[in-house]
Design brief:
By secondary structure, this protein is an alpha+beta fold. 22% of the residues are buried. InterPro entries: DUF7964.
């Protein structure tokens, strides 16, 4: 069973993403969202990076982009490529995003810590 086939037919809860990130078959699984339910996720192994998007109309996950890691292809570049394709899949133009609304700008806070 592939990773995509193992995902529920709905967005992922944060705890489910943590479980996916701990899967032995993957080196990493990170959300595109900064918080809340996950509808875009980047997954990676030593040999590839894939961008997965949840299609609400179909009620299923799909591989939006896949990049093989090989000679001359750095993981960070593959992650950025897949993230941009997830954004396009959602109808957003990654070139129009500002730093303030781009994925990865969420800064979690610790309650009672300051």
């Amino acid at each position: 069973m592939s990773v995509v086939e193992s995902l529920p037919s709905r967005p992922l809860e944060p705890q489910e993403l943590l479980e996916l990130n701990g899967a032995e078959a993957l080196e990493m699984a990170v959300p595109v969202e900064d918080e809340g339910r996950v509808t875009g996720v980047l997954i990676a192994t030593a040999s590839w990076v894939k961008g997965l998007g949840f299609d609400a109309d179909a009620g299923s996950w799909t591989v939006v982009e896949a990049v093989s890691l090989g000679e001359g292809v750095e993981r960070v570049d593959a992650l950025q490529t897949c993230e941009a394709e997830i954004l396009r899949f959602r109808g957003d133009d990654p070139d129009d995003l500002t730093a303030a609304d781009a994925p990865g700008t969420y800064e979690p806070t610790v309650d009672g810590g300051e």
